[in-house]
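Researcher: Please predict.
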Amino acid sequence: MNQPVPEVPINVQRTNPYAGADRGLFLIHYPDGPKLARVHAARYVTHGPNGAVGVLEYQVMQYSQMPSTPAEYAAGELLNAPDGSQWFDRLVRGAVLDPILVEYWVTDSFINWYHGEDGAKLTQQEKDKVKVQGTEFTTTMGGFAGLKGIELNATYNSVDGAPISRISAVLEIEYERDGETLHTEESNLPAGEFDPVRQALSILKTK
């Protein structure tokens, strides 16, 4: 059973300034009553522009009652994914660089796929297809500049019980110069949303 193709969210305000401790909380309904949960950590990877499909891996922390202190937010129970690990995954589309977008995709994925449909994690074949499609987008957009491929990795964590924040982002770039294939990486990236292919092209202008 393949995971559903993601649709770009149209009801998420990326610039929402709310940063309260309860940001990102959602309800999981069980036969014995609902429980609260929130994304605890996440990893996002894409090989193409914002229009391409990417992969988001994430952890869900569940609470038996409403947490109110940083210690209580940090002391929930990490749920297990279908493969026995604590990492769930899903396909995503569009920029997933603002934490509020990670929270949206996690809530949608966990409630509607893993909990609601008893869904399975992505297969390696699905992940490989995402990489191939993303690279095709990248070379179409950047082949004129010698761009052969990119990989953007971003990580998110809940620190001291706070809602997740973006901890790091690294853009790896493969490009060609004078018939030679070269690689470079950049971690000095914009704090907010950006298109990774356009960012790579801007970096290559300095090479």
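Model: The beta strands are 26-30, 33-46, 53-63, 77-78, 88-93, 147-157, 165-177, 180-186.
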